[in-house]
């Protein structure tokens, strides 16, 4: 009897340790998403500051300074994309599976207490993807805004060299800075997030119709 009690205590301790580890890992995953969001927001803020500098640029030295800053931002974003795209791909797949599977208790009409727990799980999955989708979309919009600011500058009276530099940065800005999630998924934007949200909802509606029948 004493041996069984010790074995039960050991098993309980192991299960408790695994649960604590799972909770800590989940929390760290959210912190990683927040770190990615900070990277995107940092780049977006630098682009927004660059747009303000472009509005006040009047000579060749200031235009060249804007070009150099723009190139630095592009290089930083390219390096960031290489680091985060695999993690974003994995997060996207896991959140989709979690959002779909988390709706099973709701479909089976469980108690309100059980259904509310899984509903929070599903909403957390949507929110976790939104944390990175919104800054990535903001980065894309601000990268396109650079070309608009160059276009809105006064071109009259500018020398040929300044116009050439302005055309260079405007041409480069026509290619927006997009965050890739690998070859199998489209770029991370709010438009993709909306499509992702509607797709998971359609799966939920389909499963509910099948199980209901």
Automatic annotation (TrEMBL):
Provide the GO biological process annotations.
signal transduction
Keywords in alphabetical order, please: Cell membrane, Membrane, Olfaction, Receptor, Sensory transduction, Transducer, Transmembrane, Transmembrane helix
Q: Which PANTHER family does its entry note? A: ODORANT RECEPTOR, ODORANT RECEPTOR 19A-RELATED
Pfam families linked: 7tm_6
Q: GO terms for molecular function, please?
A: odorant binding; olfactory receptor activity
Asked if the keyword Cell inner membrane belongs to this entry, the reply reads no
In which compartments does the protein localize?
A: Cell membrane
The way this protein sits in the membrane is described as: Multi-pass membrane protein
Q: Which organism is it from?
A: Pogonomyrmex barbatus (red harvester ant)
Q: What is this protein called?
A: Odorant receptor Or2-like
Q: Does the keyword Transmembrane apply?
A: yes
